[in-house]
Amino acid sequence: MSRVLCIGDLHEPFCLEGYLDFCVDIYNSWDCDRIVFIGDVIDNHFSSYHETDADGLGGMDELDLAIEKLKPWHDTFPDADVTIGNHDRMIMRKAQSSNIPTHWIKEYKDALNTPSWNFTERVVVDNVQYIHGEGGTARSRCIKDMQSTIQGHLHTQCYSEWKVGSRARIFGAQVGCGIDKDAYAMAYAKNFPKPAIACLVCIDGETVINEMMPL
To answer: Contact 19/213 with Cβ under 8 angstroms?
Structure first.
């Protein structure tokens, strides 16, 4: 049994100032003992499959800044699982499309200087699965997999919802995120609803608390 703090998409170096302090406060207030980052800890805007900002940072500068911004996260939460998000794997995808063998590619923890983080596609704690969530909403994924599911990816969604049947009860929960909506890398979403700046606590796989950051 455990008390998991699940941290939303960071998209470093474009995370909202104060989000780390907020997550630390929630971790302490709920006496958490495990950390899961729900993915997209970096943005990789320079290498996006969509239009990039011509005035934005180049690849090396953005990566260096992302590593710098991730350092306090790693220092604060050194023992953490990180589900791999679509932005995290962007460079890996481009390497694959260029037929570059994986032997040439660094592991995420080495490239980002986060040596004690465990990067993985999926984490299961107390029979709850944590995934990044490209495949749809948490409420649909929990039904598809018939397993309680916590996910990120959808920046504007933050909720926990139970599905109850005659023999089972499961929940789907969206974490929210920690992005700075005014960063140039988030310009694509300027006409979208505002992001839900939040994190989530899951206690013993049964109690889910969505925590919204005061703004």
So the answer is: yes
∠ Cα 151 155 157 (to 5°): 70
CA torsion 125-131-136-138 (nearest 10°) is 30
- Other CB atoms closer than 10 Å to residue 63's CB: what's the count? 20
Predicted confidence (pLDDT) per residue in 148-201, tens digit: 999 999 999 999 999 999 888 999 999 999 999 999 999 888 888 899 999 999
Residue in this structure with the two tokens 């890398």, named with its chain if needed:
185
Residue 163 contacts by C-beta under 8 Å, 6 or more apart in sequence? 139, 142, 143, 169, 170, 171, 172
Q: Which amino acid is at 1?
A: M
3-state class (DSSP) for residue 34: strand
**Integer Cα distance of 165 and 58 in angstroms:** 51
pLDDT at res. 5: 98
Q: How confident is the model at residue 107 (pLDDT cuts 50, 70, 90)?
A: very high
| Vertex 130 angle, CA 126 and 136, to 5° | 135
Identity of residue 129: Q
Q: What is the DSSP letter of 102?
A: G
Residue whose token pair is 């409420």: 139
Query: Residue 3 region, left (φ>0) first, then alpha (ψ -120 to 50), else beta?
Result: beta
CB 156 within 8 A of CB 192: yes
Look up residue 205 and give its amino acid.
Answer: G
Taking alpha carbons only, the member of 174, 159, 195, 211 closest to residue 14 is: 195
